[in-house]
Specification:
2 strands, 16 helices, mainly alpha, homodimer
């Protein structure tokens, strides 16, 4: 591109030539190149992350645990029930049903895809990484409903398959089946759930990876300030932010209950309504939206975010383009990764 | 205010009366009341923080340590050298001179005032609280230049005054003079450095605490998006953010070196140029600005922030009003608190 500009410039200098159609192309290309450069300064492709490959034995064990309903009190749910790998790591429910009949969570289940790229886990950011996160739902009475760590460890110790898998993954330990190793292995499995999408190709320099409309949407996404929070490799997941900076969120989301967010665990007035900024990868497939799944429609979600966080009324064109841009964030994982290991073995 | 509106409303209903001057006043008051309500949803006065009063013996010990040059290798500096309580907790230098001749820090010394209200410490947020922070500079060769924890502990053990003060503050411990207790006591002292300013009065409901111009500035501060990061009780200090969201910061700050921020300790591509969002209390007195003290003028700092973080050219009126608003964030601490205890005793 720079070479092309130089040639055009030289042409002008040497021959005083002027070709409108050429100029137009250059301008357009310039704008596109600027957009790419801007995007590259705000986001990173997954390939740039230089992540340590997790140990395949731990991943294999983690995958079994992820799909195993033994990890719930009555055997009614597995991690995959709420974080279904066949539907982009979510169950598309507002709140997810728990193991015990009639129980239900109180915050929307976020996708496990790309969660390993985030700086914190849970809607209030209370866990540092996917390993720490994995332990939470297992012991939660309205989720996996396991009484305590010991109950689960003892249960798994009775299964020959797990005796084998834990020995393979943690063979250097005297007593490999521990709660810590359970969550560690689930985390290892989650660390491979980071598929690349078209937006990664774009960030790597392939300008054709995004359509014109998607590029317009990317530009609106940048210019309207979404990137203040939704930046980095996961387009979010890096910080906590007040949901409803300019207006009470529940007025716009029509939430049934007012969730106080971080305040619930910190008891600090200044933490009211602070939630983790969710990552946006695969967003077109992870409805319903927000911490309480209060909004089903993605365009409406974009509109509400403009109002709540920037106090602007995004135009319909902007909303439409931004929503189109989100299509480029879609990324699936190979069938063999998302297939339950128990299906294979049965 | 609501009562007044009701009366006016009733008046209109019952008598069809219309008094233009009254309506105007109501409208203006409405706008002012809305601004206050908006501000109250974004910021908190210090009085709302419900903070635990630190133990007075620890505070007293911490104050001695804060002012004591024994806490540096050659005895050339104390905490107060860079965080001078007589000049709003800073030294107004770009970078601060260290204990060893010719040494100098590489990031601007932030104020200790109100630091205890922040969620993290240091420009890269690497310490969780003021206690953890206090240990950093003491052992840094270009700051206090103490070789190791033991050196300092042994040094203080030889001082009768400290034998007394540590015994008072940590008398329940067998060996009260430890490095941990040194930093703990300094932190306790810093926890009382949270003076209230006029903006606190305003947030408590006193609309006259701010001038008209300051209120205009507050409104611009909110409407132009500064509050996305500068919110809460400290108007910042809650999160890390990329400095230079829309443009490379060094182009605008004319920084001599490019500091990579959080990346330096995390080695993650997505952490490049992320710094802690500084709190803005006492900002009119804490020049020069930014992590590298690259800009002296506050109005210019505001202008640059608009450009870098929101990609807007703030009007001169907006800059002027926002800068005026910052005056209301000024708060001093009583003379007896900021006077060196060694002056008293000598």
């Amino acid at each position: 591109m720079k070479k092309q500009l130089l040639i055009l410039g030289l042409c002008g200098l040497l021959f005083g030539c002027k070709n409108n159609s050429e100029e137009k192309t250059t301008q357009k290309d310039d704008g596109e190149y600027e957009l790419l450069e801007k995007a590259q300064s705000l986001f990173q492709p997954i390939s740039a992350m230089d992540m340590k490959e997790p140990d395949p034995d731990k991943v294999d064990l983690g995958k079994h645990l992820f799909f195993d309903t033994r990890l719930s009190g009555e055997g009614n749910i597995s991690c995959n029930s709420c974080h279904n790998l066949n539907t982009y790591g979510v169950d598309n429910e507002r709140f997810s049903p728990g193991d015990a009949p009639g129980t239900i969570g109180n915050r929307n289940s976020p996708t496990v895809f790309h969660a390993a790229l985030h700086h914190m886990q849970f809607w209030d950011g209370r866990a540092e990484d996917v390993e720490e996160q994995a332990g939470g739902p297992i012991l939660n009475p309205v989720e996996h409903n396991i009484k305590d760590e010991e109950e689960l460890v003892n249960r798994l110790k009775e299964v020959d398959l797990y005796q084998d898998l834990f020995a393979k993954a943690y063979g250097d330990e005297e007593d490999p089946i521990t709660f810590e190793n359970i969550t560690n292995a689930i985390g290892a499995f989650e660390r491979i759930l980071i598929p690349e999408g078209r937006f990664d190709k774009y960030l790597e320099g392939d300008q054709d990876a995004l359509s014109e409309k998607e590029k317009k949407g990317l530009n609106s996404f940048i210019e309207s300030g979404c990137i203040t929070c939704h930046s980095g490799v996961a387009l979010g997941g890096q910080m906590l932010q007040k949901f409803g900076l300019y207006h009470d969120y529940w007025i716009h989301t029509e939430s049934e209950d007012i969730d106080l967010g971080l305040y619930d665990i910190s008891d600090k007035e200044s933490d009211k309504y602070f939630f983790k900024v969710p990552g946006l990868r695969n967003i077109v497939h992870t409805a319903p939206y927000f911490h309480d799944g209060s909004v089903d429609d993605l365009a409406e979600t974009v509109r509400i975010m403009g109002k709540l966080q920037r106090d602007v009324d995004l135009s319909e064109e902007e909303v439409d383009n931004i929503t189109a841009f989100f299509e480029s964030l879609t990324a699936d994982i190979p069938d063999d990764v998302k297939k339950s290991p128990f299906e294979e073995e049965e």
